[in-house]
TrEMBL record, chains A, B:
PANTHER family: HISTIDINOL-PHOSPHATE AMINOTRANSFERASE, HISTIDINOL-PHOSPHATE AMINOTRANSFERASE 2. Pathway: Amino-acid biosynthesis. Gene3D superfamilies: Aspartate Aminotransferase, domain 1, Type I PLP-dependent aspartate aminotransferase-like (Major domain). This is Pyridoxal phosphate-dependent aminotransferase. InterPro entries: Aminotransferase_I/II_large, HistidinolP_aminotransfase, PyrdxlP-dep_Trfase, PyrdxlP-dep_Trfase_major, PyrdxlP-dep_Trfase_small. Belongs to the class-II pyridoxal-phosphate-dependent aminotransferase family. Histidinol-phosphate aminotransferase subfamily. Residues 36-359 form the Aminotransferase class I/classII large domain. The keyword DNA-binding does not apply. The keyword Transferase applies. It comes from Yoonia phaeophyticola. Keywords: Aminotransferase, Pyridoxal phosphate, Transferase. CDD domains: AAT_like. GO terms for molecular function: transaminase activity.
Length: 371, 371
């Protein structure tokens, strides 16, 4: 019997995904991590009010979650002083990026991003047959001018930029980002990923223009709000761009528990302030640990810090491997010259202590390996 | 400035989704439902052990869920006595159906289903540009022979059938389904939706053949397990069909809380037995309520019962509207002649009492409306 055939596009795709979880690494290596500092999760945890709301919702989970996420959208609209029609909720920025690419990108359409930027976006572009064009980082920052120029050159439908950036942690200020938005070519949409924006200095996010049809912004409860495992993100954009998601989104929508948790987290401003302080302290601690080992760090407006290991990608990947072997889960940028760095998520003092204890040996062993 | 253009396919799609939640109806009508019997949710709730597991996981939600859903896959494999490579976890059957259609259906590909069957499947087929071909129900059952014949006629890539069926509740036995599987044409895949299988009589599910490349089966924790709001479903199929999902699935995967809940639910056989008894009692009660009002019911192997209102779709839709007005959330099949029925989800004795109290008036008012 002849088997059913995948579509030509599906046939062309590898059966692999860009995100390998720490649990998969733990299973492969046969021991658990002592410190979990590789996925920019918030080891400080979510708001206790969010935990309580999720625990309450657990007993109501026989009901589907509201597929319109009405209450959460209303609350987010009030929070941002915009309309619910400017907001689409989804199962994390990742899912929203997938839906967005599906709506705008078909076979051969050009898309622009930075070499070494968020791989999940690239995964979606490939998954819908788009053609990815990249520009390099500039001084360890994403380069708005180069992204715009490339988009003009190739007639891109989408440009992706994260501000603050992952994996480097660097950022541009609001004026610079507004300048970029204003320069988006006709027929193109800027995807502005602001996953870490709550942890950035005041003046990093440009004002929200609720009618701008050349930018869509992505936010999440996974980072500052400490709810990565709940899968809640949202897009902010002009009403007709947002309305487009209703053409193809998973209309059974969101987990009921996740919706309840996000709503409670949003209302707990005090916890967010607490997290900002903890993240700030932890960034300082990472800088200090690096300095104690003779290493520089990159400036960060996020809940992680890139440590420059001072040599090339080979050396940094040895440091990384040694940290992993020591039970410290961390990651590194993929592309030279940014791959001279390792990326350390902020964490509790206890997590930082484990990292501080492991780093000197990891560096020494990497040096020794050089022969 | 010229706005970015949706793909031609996206432009062709309406900005609407097939599932409108009861909360949306409540907001529109301005009052809450007294009984929630319209979405085949399990008002009996999930296993208390599943609730406890989800409550524990809530405090760990700062961590991403394992994107491989390893523990749940292992447990499901053991439960079904198959390999983890035969199982793909997803955010409900709905999401899995969407990924499946994406993998196999592109512009103009033919797909076959029954007129009046699960609309979410049709939504995904439209969303990826497929062409839907339908056959009618036969005696209020899905018609395997007609589905197979239509698939041969149009060269379908996918055939969809639910066994037991939603919205009618009727079913075929395992031998009949195996006969259908054996008749699937070359180059075609049968999508066998078994969302309600745990509530059906022994002998409804054909044996799982872990190497069959002409069928993929869909299961869920939303129905018998009472976890609709957690969004956990799974597909069972040959390893290379399952592996295909890794080409395009949302690799950040599942809610951590949902994974924990599903794992605990799967292990609580006692609760599933309790639910089977409750559902069976409730089906009898719905039959009795119908009889008290002079109405027949259809046989059901699910957690809902279709009540034949004894006239046409217009009449049934009046009965439905009257029930809604009385605060009873119920739904009805979309297509004649099945739309002579209303579909009542099983529920607790208290929910059944509310329905029993509302039905006579709803019928009387519908009769009066006929003039």
């Amino acid at each position: 019997m002849t088997k059913v055939a995948l579509t030509p596009l599906a046939q062309s795709l590898p059966a692999s995904v860009p995100f390998v979880g720490p649990e998969a690494q733990e299973r492969a290596q046969g021991f658990p991590f002592k410190a979990r500092l590789g996925a920019n999760e918030s080891t400080f945890g979510p708001s206790p009010k969010a935990i309580a709301a999720m625990q309450k919702a657990a007993s109501e989970v026989w009901m589907y979650g509201d597929p319109e996420s009405h209450d959460l959208r209303q609350a987010l609209a009030a929070h941002h002083q915009i309309a619910p029609e400017n907001i689409m909720i989804g199962e994390g920025i990742d899912t929203l990026l997938g839906v967005l690419v599906r709506l705008y990108v078909t076979a051969g359409d050009a898309v622009v991003t930075s070499a070494g930027a968020y791989p999940t976006f690239n995964y979606h572009v490939a998954g819908f047959g788009g053609t990815l064009h990249t520009v390099p980082y500039k001084n360890d920052h994403e380069d708005p001018d180069a992204l715009i120029a490339k988009a003009r050159e190739v007639g891109a439908k989408l440009i992706y930029i994260a501000n603050p950036d992952n994996p480097m942690g660097t950022w541009h200020n609001a004026a610079r980002m507004q300048q970029m938005i204003d320069a988006v070519p006709a027929g193109c949409l800027l995807v502005l990923d602001e996953a870490y924006i709550e942890l950035a200095p005041e003046g990093t996010a440009p004002a929200i223009n609720t009618s701008a049809d050349n930018v869509i912004r992505m936010r999440t409860f996974s980072k500052a709000h400490g709810m990565a495992g709940a899968r809640v993100g949202y897009a902010i954009g002009a009403p007709d761009i947002i309305q487009g998601f209703n053409k193809v989104r998973n209309h059974f929508g969101m987990s009921r528990i996740s919706q309840a948790g996000a709503l409670a987290a949003l209302r707990d401003d005090g916890w967010l302030g607490h997290i900002r302080e903890e993240v700030s302290k932890s960034r300082e601690r990472i800088i200090q640990i690096a300095a104690e080992n003779g290493l520089q760090t990159l400036p960060s407006a996020t809940n992680f810090v890139a440590i420059d290991c001072g040599r090339n990608g080979d050396f940094a990947s040895r440091v990384l491997a040694n940290l992993i072997t020591a039970g410290v889960f961390v990651r590194m940028p993929f592309v030279a010259p940014q791959n001279r760095c390792i990326r350390i998520s902020c964490g509790t003092a206890a997590q930082m202590d484990i990292f501080a204890a492991a780093l000197p040996g990891a560096l020494q062993a990497a040096h020794d390996n050089l022969g």
